[in-house]
Amino acid sequence: MADNDDALEGRDEDRPAFDVACINPQTRHAALVSTTGNHCQVWRSTVRQSSLDDSYVEYVIKFPLDRYGMADARILVKQYRMLRAALGEIVPEALFVISCINGSPNLFVLARAVNVWFNIANPSNREEAIGLLRDHPLARAQLATFVTQARRWREDANPRVIDLFGLDNLVMDNSRCIRYVDSYYVFFFEDLLHMLGGEPDHELEEKINLSLRRLDYLEDILRLSEPAG
Q1: What does CATH list as the number for 4-112?
Q2: Chunked mean pLDDT (size 10), the chain, 229 residues
Q3: What is the residue extent of each domain of the chain?
Q4: Angle at 122 between CA 119 and CA 125, to 5 degrees
Q5: Rounded to whole angstroms, how far apart are CA atoms 3 and 109?
Q6: Rounded to two decimals, what is the model's pTM?
């Protein structure tokens, strides 16, 4: 797999600077839009929706920073289907693809692009978030669905915490809709903290605790944005 500096070389030519067997870099132009994720870099591109017109669909290529195999693919697809079943269009459509990437089998994700407009999960944006939720009932309803489902997952027989550690995971798009855009291992499992014995996993513990604090924050701004009467 290419290192980060090699991948960034694609910025000047506006196309992926890595070798994915099923993507022709000469015909599939893309721009690097994010290198901050724990699991992937994000490239953005377009494809013609139909040969009958000039409409295009924007999508992102999530290029993995680690090595993923078929076992990972099964887990990630299962988690994605769980998200889509519970959250619907809050989760963008996505495909999980095993291909030869830089000479080795690996997993990348193709997902419908989201035009991020506002970071709804950032407590620094509290007052603006409350105002936006008051002004946009659909976004408020979507966020309420997300929070309710996140609480259900944590209280389930197999408890899990949805990943809100990444500040860009839950956003409002430019249509003022709520979107959850993470694709790689979107849940944290608290039972893993002490499963192996010895010292707890402090990094995992911090990610879980921060995700839960942000979930509390989302509940708070929902309550404060309730319509009068």
Answers
A1: 3.30.200
A2: 42 60 70 79 77 76 91 96 96 94 90 93 95 97 98 92 90 96 91 68 88 96 89
A3: 4-112, 116-224
A4: 80
A5: 18
A6: 0.86
